[in-house]
Write a structure and sequence with these properties.
- It is a single chain.
- This protein is 24% helix and 24% strand.
- By secondary structure, the protein is α+β, with helices and mostly antiparallel strands.
- The protein has a single domain, classed as Double-stranded beta-helix (4-Layer Sandwich), CATH 3.60.130.10.
- The strands form 4 sheets. A 7-stranded mixed sheet has the order 1-2-3-13-5-15-4, with helices on one face.
- The chain is globular.
- The chain starts with a strand and ends in a 9-residue tail after the last strand.
Length: 291
């Protein structure tokens, strides 16, 4: 089957033509990978994945799955597999999480601009989010084009940041919002160091690699490093670089964490139910191991 892609933003993001990814063959998967190289974010409609099917697709599409999530430190995954992230406001009992629930409080940081699994090494490559239940109010996810943001930098700034490396810590992004870790939890989230400018194999363009997890620039005084990271984030999240995705049940969105940032937008999660499932692959040589 020949896939086509309809751009949803002037510089990145496209919606794929009709396809059932549960039964995608090798050629279809390769077309999706080429689409990811071009657009960075792909939207697929009407994808009725079960949890097992989503795990199987993620593995066949891109190999090794990320399972050392921050939420796994707080409590066991209700699905029984840490590689299937529970992006929801629902507890084990099927009820909305209470306002002071620790998983809910930690997840509030998803409303900060971030990059999935930048706090581990190897870092995240592709994330795949499946919409199972969506509220009747706006609860978009926004994406920022980090290749476009890099291209728009002036030459002096590009030279300044060319070889900088940044320490990413998901504990940092939570503590910024006042989240408190219990003894022993923070030690499991030591973080990782990555280049500030990414060069993606097979893609000629460079990309800024930022996230709310970006704690400090290695070798720089902390205040100056954090100010530069803040300035770059403000630059990269200007309206011209941002696409907002309004979710429909059955939507399946894949994005490249190396070339985008994203964030959840506000909705009253104490009143409206939302359930999504996320799988993220690691930036390692592609394998076809089972999930």
């Amino acid at each position: 089957m020949q896939l086509t892609f309809k751009p949803l933003h002037p510089s990145f993001v496209a919606e794929a033509s009709e396809v059932d990814l549960r039964h995608a063959d090798s050629e279809t998967l390769e077309q999706v990978r080429r689409g990811m190289d071009q657009y960075g974010v792909l939207v697929f409609r009407k994808q009725p994945f079960t949890d097992d099917q989503q795990l199987e697709f993620a593995t066949q599409f891109d190999g090794t799955l990320h399972a050392k999530t921050s939420s796994s430190v707080l409590e066991k995954n209700r699905f029984g597999n840490e590689a299937l992230s529970d992006v929801s406001n629902v507890g084990r009992d099927g009820q909305l999480l209470p306002p002071n629930d620790r998983r809910r409080m930690s997840a509030l940081a998803n409303r900060l601009w971030h990059t999935d699994a930048s706090f581990v090494d190897p870092a995240g490559r592709y994330s795949m989010l499946s919409a199972r239940v969506v509220p009747e109010v706006h609860a978009d996810t926004q994406f920022a084009d980090m290749r476009g943001a890099y291209d728009a930098l002036d030459a002096q700034t590009k030279t300044l940041i060319e070889d900088l490396r940044v320490h990413h810590s998901i504990a940092y992004s939570r503590e910024v919002l006042g989240f408190e870790f219990a003894p022993g939890e923070k030690e499991q989230l030591k973080g990782a160091v990555h280049p500030l400018v990414r060069r993606i194999p097979g893609v000629l363009r460079r990309s800024l690699y930022l996230a709310s997890h970006a704690q400090e620039i290695v070798g720089w005084p902390v205040p100056e490093g954090r100010l530069l990271l803040r300035d770059l984030t403000e630059h990269a999240t200007q309206a011209r670089f941002v696409y907002s995705h309004p979710w429909l049940v059955g939507d399946f969105v894949i994005w490249d964490n190396r070339t985008t940032m994203h964030r959840a937008t506000y909705f009253d999660d104490k009143k409206h139910r939302r359930e999504l499932r996320r799988t993220t692959t690691l930036d390692v040589a592609r394998t076809t191991a089972t999930a």
